[in-house]
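[agent] plan:
  1. take the single chain provided in the ticket
  2. run structure prediction with default settings
  3. attach structure tokens to the ticket
  4. add a short note for the reviewer (M.T.)
[agent] executing step 1
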Amino acid sequence: MPFRPLIALLLLVLSTVAGADEVAEVQRLLRNGDTTGALQRAERAVAANPRDTRLRFLQGVILLDQQHDVPAMAVFQRLSEEFPELPEPFNNMALLHARAGRLEAARLALETALRNDPGLLTARQNLGDIHLRLALQAWEAVAAVAPADNALQRKLRLSRELVGPTR
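[agent] step 2 finished; step 3 output follows
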């Protein structure tokens, strides 16, 4: 299912020049395909400057992309607690919830992201994906009881095609 994490952090608190240099270096490593080096650099930078929200968010995104879901969730959870007005950590927590099959938790996180920033198109699109997956679950439950319903079978086929393979 195409679920989109947010990488840009335009709304986060400005970091120091040193922090900006670290962000640029981590991003350079990522562009060069060195995700392990990027994560190590991000972790060292966060340890040295734990208040730098951009570095912390970038660390979480790298962990998310590497499918290290538990530590990624911890990063985004801490950011959401310290900066509850920011939508991006909630959007990425939703991705992690969805990846784990916790669709209601994903929906709630996305609704929080959209309350914080109603114009956040990535979160809006992700919420649509979650609604589709929730509908698919409901239709599958009905199909288990009434498998001969042709209209329902058509909905199931089309929605499965849209959702794609799930984990």
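[agent] step 4 note for reviewer: The CA atoms of residues 143 and 152 lie 7 Å apart.
[agent] ticket updated
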